[in-house]
Model the fold of this input.
Amino acid sequence: MRALTYHGSLDVKVDTVPDPILQQQDDVILKVTATAICGSDLHMYRGKIPAMKRGDILGHEFMGEVVDAGPQVTHLKKGDRVVVPFVIACGSCFFCDMQLFSACETTNPDRGAIMNKKSLRSGAALFGFSHLYGGVPGGQAEYVRVPKANVGPIKIPTALADEQVLFLSDILPTGYQAVLNTGVKKGGNLAIFGAGPVGQMAAASAKMLGIDRIFMVDHHQYRLDFACATYGVVPFNFDDGDAADFILQATDGRGVDGVVDAVGFEAKGSKLETVMTDLKLEGSSGTALRQCIAAVRRGGTVSVPGVYAGFIHGFLFGDIFEKGIGVKAGQTHVQKYMPELLRAIEEGRLHPNAIISHRLKLEQAAEGYKMFDKKQDDCRKVVLTP
Done:
């Protein structure tokens, strides 16, 4: 089969690789009909995620048709059309029983990016996301093996097109969980840092949930313009000044009820932070996170779906304490939210496909990565079809 493989920093290629086969009795093999390039994929593309190996198949946003199934698969059959969550969860461990699927303690033999050696238990394995997270081949391919197929893949009604539901695999539930984690209620106000795909899905979710005023911060004006026109956000370009000051002034100095940090560790930081990161003295840029802490009101919550790893200087934990701020972070419990979000799409309350800006064939995947990475041609989201 053909699949997009990792060859080094800024170097991905579509190669011919062996077809996947059933390995466990609850596996299925999926013929991929649509897949997408995620902002998280860019971390690996840029060489920022360790434990990548030459030939690793990328991609964790995908859907398709079941073409083979193991003897213990009870929820799916050949011919079923499904979307697959990027989190691989067993469905029966301590954490899965609490619907904390991304904390599943059985699917990933590694410890993820946790540096504290006292943290012995891993989180869930992820598709196409390095050997820190299980080394499971991803879905930017013609076919993919889906482990734990009784837990997660969701059947899609024939009336819905692939593009309408594809983002149930990651960015839609990630943006939705991020908003829920802020605790902001109908009529409240919210700030979203980062107008990439997750930030856009957070804005769509916030609008659906009735949040009254949504501030959005980014330094790519075309992304802010889209969010303003589509979701009615109050935009602020990070290059125009201090975003937290802008938000504070717009909220009578109080701050917003909740903040979503959809930027993460590759936030555009100061020259000092760049040097510290290059010297491995800092694992992540804290620029966006410090802005979030400043912009949220006392007693509010900072929700962090953006990926972080390692050390951050100037974390300002004293400000978190003084303001009584809550912080909720982590990978998304995708399986928990897929059914309700699918209903929202069916009922016309969500239109996640609105963010798609480019449609390419799988063979053009390397071109799509470059375009998305460089923000060329006002690229918001790339969908690939085999």
DSSP finds eleven helices and 17 strands in the chain. The chain has two domains: 2-170+333-385, 171-329. The radius of gyration is 20 Å.
